[in-house]
Amino acid sequence: MISGSHVILYSQDAEADRTFLRDVLGFPGVDAGGGWLIFKLPPAEVAVHPTEDAPRHEFYLMCDDLHAQLGQLRAQGVEVTRPVSEQRWGLLTAVRLPSGAELPLYQPLHPVAHSL
């Protein structure tokens, strides 16, 4: 039986990004040994989209109120890297991780599966 999913973010500054997940986003975690942190994520869902290009994977964090979440993140000094845009499926933006990578955030305007 499948009991969960495991997302891997590759980072050029893994320690700083782990600290961001723990201290800024408040994700609880466990030490898998030697300071290797693994974080509990909010409920998740997976979608499969068609593509004509090479297959790829994306990771987004979902928010119930994107504008309120951005206010909280900005108050903690987090850089918002994209203006909020309205897509057919939701409100979309991204924030800067300490490593320099972007982490997309969105507020879905579609039915969600994560609480089924």
TrEMBL record:
It holds the Pfam family Glyoxalase. Residues 3-108 form the VOC domain. Signal peptide: none annotated. InterPro entries: Glyas_Bleomycin-R_OHBP_Dase, Glyas_Fos-R_dOase_dom, VOC_core. This is VOC domain-containing protein.
